[in-house]
Design brief:
single chain; 1019 residues; eight-stranded antiparallel beta sheet; 1 helix; 0% helix
Length: 1019
């Protein structure tokens, strides 16, 4: 029988074998579009199987045989179409048709921007591919010159649809981001802002009333807002002191009484930090709660610290000065939402918890340092904001309740008595003089109203002024000693001089008194913000916390009370910022909103000179992947800009009628929206109430009655994963999905209220400047679950991972933790199918929970390696091997280094090179571990054929006897699976360039190839 029957002079780039020991079946697809072939006799003869339905899709990106049925094979065409045969290739059915059909399209839309001045023009981003444009209902045009393949933000000029700005989010090997601009509708682009050491530009916003003004938000080791006043020609940082680091209130800043150079600062979602050098440097306490409302030191042992968690109703404790933490209380069984205050007095510890809307709640006490807790709420009417304990009689306790005044107990909290003459303020802080306990101080907000829509039914008005109040008779009577123009958040007594007082006020900065409050002096020179929230003093050191500008540190003259702020110890710590969203009030250019993770929502009313925290009732939310999951997202009603809606990831929707000074929950009377994972909010004005649309991971929801009720309008969508929403100027609602591209909502143009999938992006095969003008194709890897036929994974270039749990009928994007990256290969851990490894364009990634979460797992790899293949030692799956191409210089590699081979002995936690005997000036396509002797490895190279290692990769030797063509089959786009091992491990098959397939028996299998001993035989 002639060798290579049907394959002679054919270049083979893809091979597949069924998972059936003893089977002689092999599938092969050529480089040159000659068709798809099959052998059932290990390559002695081949059958052409294209005619059963593959044509005209004869260029392949992947062919994979199901491990559950040797007759079932999936074939991915280079047009993104996926075909399946269930009869071994006799007939093929198209199961995914992104361009001509409907449903799954490998297309995740992360940015969507209709032109405000032209209802027919839409710009959008297909994640990983690039920006597309559609005009007047026509086909999509790929704007390849944008050179933007990953972005979360596209902004279109309000009156000129040809002027467009796009952010750019870098790949793992890049440490910069940029803003790209087109002035001609996308035909040409230029970089107008380049930001080094940035993780990405996540928001670009054009001022709707002054479109020459553009804002851009950069995330990274610190967050930055940039502003241009000349349509992007030049940029400057908006406010270099705005670091999104908020210390929200007094209990979040504490000082070590034994060492004033040591202080702790708890922030809004940016973690808890510690300084030991008076604020010159700060260290993040990695194990502490990421968002903490209160800290408390044990005054008898400063290594013991308590922390109140804002993300969940828990109390934490450290016994080693913050190095490690343990959970000591969880009040969730009582319906608590978060812990607002914790205060330690030796072994006695108090903790207050808030209810779900930050109303209600309870007060708890522990007498054994947090081991057990007792509810001592009694008749207290509301959650507790602050607690103070008598210095010599711990049974005497004071507390404040914000709206309902202050209370005291003389029996350690068994009973409570309201302080009848307490000032009518919202008290944030109450303190007892340590030397004269009859003196009590309190401070808070005043002379303002909580609106009725926030506090039903009638609201509440504080009749006394904001500021500081003093009692000389243990709280029986009070006098005002300081009036502040805004909230006074903290009153501190110097531990060495009880007449020296420090008040931290929002807008008034720091006020100091040296005569017990009779007179006050401002010490604000050197502060970058006067919006202060907290204060800690000890010895000659002082710290103040702020909204958005971190902690400032200064020196106290203990003789006259003067304060000198130290610039090198201030405006710190600087947290890493994961996401930023900018919106400008459409009627007031001076009002800017910034949503940040960390930090929450901020508002500036003076064009960014000053920012205020606007997190009144909104919770801190911890997300698994802050780059992909929405901590906060918000929207402004364009016709009533005081109405602002805010959505969180899993903790509800909130609305405000006063630009977020106050807000309330708007989850529906049935709490339908609580627990939804919200990506975006869109407001359509009109009628008594605006129509509010919400894009979530669970679908699209609509409210037309101010959030009282919500309707799920997702029934006609093919996926619930809705990433973005937009509305054209003619009222067409559009949603961008994860995996299914774009849909539009028929209403109000027709009587049918349903979604229709828009035309596919298509444009396959066009040039791609981001990758050296390579053709644009969705290179794909398929992974079938070894025991559950319903679970299938698609690893795509460049959109990441999709997962099906219904045998491919539907798909969900599974990219939490994934980098901006594509996939070359997917493989299961041999002993646990929940553990998946992905070879990517930038090393290796790993999931330990069935692709629900991913992490980079490439420590030791050179940069920019395109990992084509991963395999395991069957004796010890801790031992792994992988091989790659060097992807530097847009995939061209560099002189003398075009690929590498790596090994790990700890399941991929670290890797080292094993290239002794190899010429690394080439690419390496496949590595396979021998099933009979796992110290033996087989390696497919770019041009030197196969190599073998018999010592676990310590050295390599050529293994090409009988191989007349050592050049591997590849189509130039590196879509290749050029070497496979039969299921029982008896034979290797190698696809060559222009010479068909060669077969060789493995040396330890006991099989001798009949044609050519143990050498390669052309098949």
């Amino acid at each position: 029988m002639p060798i290579n029957q049907g394959l002679f002079n054919v270049g083979i780039s893809l091979l597949a074998v069924p998972n059936v020991p003893g089977s002689g079946t092999v599938y092969a697809t050529p480089i040159g579009a000659e068709g798809t072939f099959k052998t059932t006799d290990r390559g002695n003869s081949w059958t052409f199987i294209t005619e059963g339905g593959i044509a005209p899709h004869i260029f392949a990106d992947e062919i994979v045989a199901s491990p559950h049925d040797q007759e079932t094979v999936w074939y991915v065409a280079d047009t993104e179409e996926v075909l399946q045969t269930t009869n071994g290739g006799t007939t093929w059915d198209k199961i995914i048709d992104p361009f001509h059909g409907y449903g799954f399209r490998f297309g995740s839309v992360h940015a969507l921007a209709p032109a405000p001045s032209d209802p027919g023009t839409i710009y959008t981003l297909k994640n990983g591919f690039g920006i597309f444009k559609r005009t007047n209902g026509g086909d999509w045009r790929f704007l390849h010159q944008s050179e933007v393949d990953y972005t979360y933000s596209i902004a279109v000029h309000p009156t000129n649809p040809d002027i467009v700005y796009s952010g750019y989010n870098p790949k793992p090997f890049q440490d910069w981001a940029m803003v790209r601009r087109t002035l001609d509708g996308g035909d040409s682009w230029e970089t107008v802002l380049d930001v080094p050491k940035s993780y990405g530009i996540t928001s670009v916003a054009v001022d709707p009333t002054n479109p020459d003004t553009v804002y851009a938000a950069s995330i990274g080791k610190r967050g930055q807002i940039y502003k241009s006043t000349d349509t992007g020609d030049s940029w400057s940082e908006l406010n270099k002191h705005f670091i999104m680091c908020t210390v929200w209130g007094q209990p979040q800043l504490i000082i070590d009484p034994d060492n004033p150079s040591t202080a702790y600062a708890a922030t809004w979602l940016a973690g808890t930090w510690k300084t030991t050098d008076a604020g010159a440097t700060w260290d993040l306490l990695e194990d502490a709660p990421v968002s903490c409302t209160a800290l408390s030191l044990n005054q008898f042992n400063s290594s013991i610290i308590y922390s109140a968690d804002r993300t969940k109703p828990k109390v934490w404790k450290s016994t080693d000065a913050g190095l490690t933490w343990e959970e000591i209380a969880d009040f969730s069984s009582d319906g608590a939402f978060l812990v607002n205050r914790v205060l330690a007095d030796g072994s006695k510890v108090y903790a207050s918890a808030f209810g779900p809307t930050l109303h209600g709640g309870k007060l708890y006490k522990s007498i054994d340092a947090g081991i057990s807790w007792t509810d001592i709420t009694g008749d207290l009417p509301r959650s507790i904001l602050d607690v103070a304990i008598h210095p010599s009689n711990p049974d005497i306790v004071y507390l404040t309740t914000h709206i309902y005044g202050a209370y005291t107990s003389t029996d350690g909290g068994t009973t409570w008595t309201q302080l009848q003459n307490f000032p009518d303020i919202g008290a944030y802080d109450i303190e007892v003089d340590p030397l004269d306990p009859t003196i009590v101080y309190a401070c808070g907000l005043g002379a303002c109203s909580v609106p009725d829509w926030c506090m039903k039914p009638d609201g509440y008005t504080f009749t006394d002024d904001a500021g500081v109040y003093k009692s000389d008779d243990s709280g029986s009577t009070w006098s005002k000693i300081l009036t502040t123009s805004n909230e006074c958040r903290a009153i501190r007594i110097h531990p060495g001089n009880h007449n020296m007082l420090f008040a931290a006020a929002m807008d008034d900065g720091l006020q100091v008194s040296t005569d017990g409050g009779d007179s006050w002096t401002s010490y604000n020179t050197g502060l970058c913000t006067y919006v202060l929230t907290s204060c800690a003093v000890g010895g000659d050191k002082i710290y103040v916390g702020s909204q958005a500008c971190g902690v400032h540190s200064g020196d106290i003259n203990t003789g006259n009370g003067s304060v000198t702020w130290q610039q090198d110890r201030s405006n710190k710590p600087v947290p890493e910022v994961h996401s930023l969203q900018i919106q400008i009030d459409p009627t007031n250019s001076s009002r800017i909103f910034v949503g940040a993770n960390p930090g929450g929502l901020y508002r500036s009313d003076d064009s960014g000179a000053t920012f205020y925290d606007k997190n009144f009732l909104t919770p801190s939310v911890v997300v698994d992947d802050p780059f992909r999951q929405g901590y906060y997202t918000f929207a402004i009603d364009p016709t009533n800009t005081n109405e602002v809606w805010l959505g969180t990831w899993g903790k509800g929707i909130y609305k405000s009628y006063d630009a977020m000074d106050f807000d309330i929950g708007a989850n529906g009377t049935d709490m339908k929206m609580y627990g939804k994972h919200i990506n975006q909010i869109l407001i359509q004005p009109g009628g008594r109430f605006a129509t509010v649309y919400v894009a979530t991971e669970e679908g699209v929801f609509e409210s037309t009655d101010g959030g009282t009720t919500w309707n799920d309008i997702s029934s006609s969508l093919d996926t619930p994963q809705i990433r973005t929403l937009a509305m054209t100027t003619d009222g067409t609602l559009i949603c961008g999905t994860l995996g299914y591209e774009l849909y539009y909502y028929d209403t109000p143009h027709t009587m049918y209220h349903r979604w229709q999938q828009m035309r596919a992006f298509g444009n396959f095969g066009v040039f791609w400047p981001r990758w050296d003008n390579r053709p644009l194709y969705p290179y794909t890897s398929i992974l079938f679950h070894p025991t559950n036929p319903d679970i299938i994974y698609f690893g795509t270039f460049p959109a990441g991972i999709y997962k099906s749990t219904d045998a491919g009928q539907s798909w969900r994007e599974s990219n939490v933790g994934w980098t901006n990256d594509g996939v070359f290969c997917l493989v299961f851990h041999p002993e646990d199918a929940n553990i998946i490894y992905a070879g990517t364009y930038n090393g290796a990634n790993r999931s330990t929970d069935g692709a629900a979460h991913w992490e980079m797992w490439d420590n030791g790899w050179p940069d920019e390696q395109w990992v084509f293949s991963i395999d395991f030692d069957p004796r010890d799956p801790n031992v792994m091997y992988a091989c790659s191409k060097n992807g530097e210089n847009e995939g061209k590699g560099r002189d003398s280094f075009h690929g590498t081979v790596m090994k790990s002995t700890n399941t991929g936690a670290s890797w080292f090179e094993i290239t002794n005997g190899l010429d690394v000036n080439q690419e390496f396509y496949k590595i396979i571990v021998d099933l009979y002797n796992p110290d033996t490895l087989y390696l497919a190279t770019e041009r030197d054929g196969l190599f073998i290692s018999r010592n676990g990769g310590e050295s390599w030797l050529p293994w090409n006897e009988g191989l007349t063509n050592p050049v591997a089959g590849t189509n130039g786009n590196n879509v290749t699976n050029t070497m496979v091992l039969s299921a029982e491990g008896l034979y290797l098959y190698f696809g060559t360039a222009r010479s068909g397939v060669f077969r060789r028996s493995t040396p330890y299998s006991g099989v001798v190839d009949s044609e050519n001993s143990a050498d390669f035989a052309a098949k």
